[in-house]
Structures are given as structure tokens and as C-alpha cells.
Amino acid sequence: MWLPAWFGIMNIWTLLVPAALFFFGAGMLFPLATSGAMEPYAWLAGSAGALIGGMQNLGSGLIAWMSALMPQRDQFSLGMLMFFTALVMLLCWLPLSRQPERGNQPVTG
Fold first, then answer.
1. Rounded Cα–Cα distance for residues 109 and 2 (Å)
2. pLDDT tens digits, residue range 3-33?
3. CB distance 100 to 40 below 8 Å
4. Residue that wins the pLDDT comparison between 52 and 65
5. Burial of 16 from C-beta contacts in 10 A (0-12 / 13-18 / 19+)
6. What backbone phi and psi angles, to 5 degrees, belong to 108?
7. Where are the alpha helices (DSSP H) in 39-75?
8. Measured at the alpha carbon of residue 18, what is the angle toward residues 16 and 20, in degrees to the nearest 5?
């Protein structure tokens, strides 16, 4: 969505297709992130689920606040925010993807 905005192209397809791809990915990611956050702490599943839900709400609130501070003349600011959040998700995922699988061993302190 950000790339067409750089060239001044704005129509229904430059809004709808990138948004659909982004929300499809977010729809796949958020339930998996929630279950992944609760897996190592099965005995605290409620607390772990509440913590990850709270972190997601905090992140979306910060992004909404940033969006409110930006000019809303075209798709540029929305595309930039979507690109930024996708980049943050990727940077958070990369270190986790390189860790070896722990198996079903309980976490001990």
C-alpha cells in the first residue's frame, strides 16, 4: 500500500489488496502467537493469554495513536503504518524462528 502511494496511485485495488494481505497474515499470526505464548506455561494459560492479549491491545493502541498524529490525505500514512507494523512483526519473529525446538520439557526457574 505504501509503494503505490509513493507514485501517487490511489484506487480501490491499491487499498483493498494490500489491506487484505496484511489482515490475512495478521489473522494467521495472532492466534498462533497466543497459543505459542501459552504453550510453555500451561499451568498459567489464563495469565499468559491475558498478557499476550494485553500486549496486542497496547500495540494496536500505540499504532492508532501514531495514526491520529499523521495527516490523513491519502493512503501514504496508512501504508507506512502497515509497513512499519509488518516490519516490527518480522523483526520480533526472526530471533524466535532461529531457536531450536525445546520439546515438551517444563520450564524450570
1. 45
2. 887 888 888 888 888 889 888 988 887 788 7
3. no
4. 65
5. exposed
6. -115, 145
7. 45-69
8. 65
Residue 100 in 3-state DSSP? coil
Q: What is the pLDDT of residues 65-97, one digit of tens each?
A: 988 998 888 788 888 888 888 898 889 878 877
Geometric angle at alpha carbon 56, from 10 and 102, rounded to 5° = 120
Q: How many CA atoms lie within 13 A of 57 on its CB side?
A: 6
Distance from C-alpha of 77 to C-alpha of 24, rounded to nearest angstrom? 20
Grid-cell match 505504501, residue found: 2
Residue type, 55: M
77, 71 contact by CB (below 8 A): yes
